[in-house]
Amino acid sequence: MTSHALGQLSERQACSLLQQAGLRLLARNYRCRLGELDLVMRDTDTVVFVEVRYRRSNRWGSAEESVDWRKRQRVVNAARHYLLTHPHLADQPCRFDVVAAAGNPEDPQNYRWIRDAFTSQ
Question: Quick count: other Cβ atoms within 10 Å of Cβ 120?
Answer without folding.
Answer: 14
